[in-house]
Write a structure and sequence with these properties.
The protein has 96 residues and is of the alpha+beta class. The protein has a 3-stranded antiparallel sheet, with helices on one face. The protein has 1 helix and 3 strands, in the order βββα.
């Protein structure tokens, strides 16, 4: 039987897109005069601890879109849960 290629699922991420601004410490660098280096990053929680992934400039839009997909999916799940509770209540004749 021929191999059927798996369809890649779109990336979904939970976290916050942020920008780190820092000085490198070199006295002649532009950051010493007040223009810090900037790095995009994703911060997220794993096992109760905040983790950080530094991103390349090319990854920022992909990560931003993945965060939007997560929020959309979360909202859809919350809506379905509210509908489920309403259906259960109506099936029980309004008893709580």
């Amino acid at each position: 039987m021929p191999c059927i290629a798996r369809r890649a699922r779109p990336l979904v991420l939970h976290g916050t897109l942020t920008t780190f601004r820092r000085r490198c410490g070199k006295p002649a660098c532009r950051c010493a005069a007040g223009e810090p280096h900037e790095s995009p990053a994703l911060t997220y929680t794993e096992d109760g601890r905040t983790k950080t992934l530094t991103l390349s400039a090319g990854e920022v839009e992909e990560v931003r879109a993945a965060l939007v997909r997560y929020e959309s999916a979360r909202e859809e799940l919350e809506d379905a849960a509210r509908e489920g509770i309403a259906a259960l209540r109506s099936r029980r004749g309004g008893r709580t």
